[in-house]
Design goal:
single chain, 148 residues, alpha+beta, Sufe protein. Chain: A, 4 helices, 3 strands, 45% helix
Length: 148
């Protein structure tokens, strides 16, 4: 038997190309696994703590409550409570202004970019501040308190 030594010649260029393609293949497989692995999306945090939030306004010696009712992710309603006839007579624009504001806020689900007419500008500003205060309470309220 004639044993001859076999010599294998490896070119450095071929080794580098093989190594690069091997790394690219591994990277491709890792990216595919990451893309198609099933991940459960974390549930979005609630925007508000559900409940009824009240801000009191002192008008003409009487207290009027601006009540905002919210769900976990939306504003459900805005209303006035304890509005006496004397206050309504002294501030005749309070109810129309609240209706105008609440329609916009319920549609937009935000107090940002709310418009109001020049006729009831100051009344609208007072109501808008009270509504914003109630929404701030709803955002900041812990789960076990804050809402009625």
């Amino acid at each position: 038997m004639n044993k001859k030594a076999k010599i294998v010649v490896l070119h450095l260029k071929e080794l580098v190309y093989t190594g690069i393609f091997l790394l690219l293949g591994i990277l491709f497989v890792v990216i595919l696994v990451m893309m198609f692995s099933v991940k459960e999306e974390p549930e979005a945090a609630a925007l508000y703590t559900p409940g009824k939030y009240t801000t009191s306004l002192e008008l003409g010696g009487n207290t009027v409550d601006v009540v905002v009712v919210v769900d976990s992710d939306s504003i459900a309603s805005i209303s006035l409570e304890h509005l006496e006839e004397s206050v309504s007579a002294m501030y005749p624009l309070i109810e129309p202004a609240l209706e105008e504001l609440s329609a916009q806020i319920l549609k937009q689900q935000s107090v940002d970019n709310v418009t109001y007419s020049d006729d009831n500008q100051y009344t609208s500003m007072v109501l808008l501040n009270a509504i914003s205060n109630s929404l701030t309470q709803a955002k900041a309220a812990p789960e076990d308190s804050g809402a009625e």
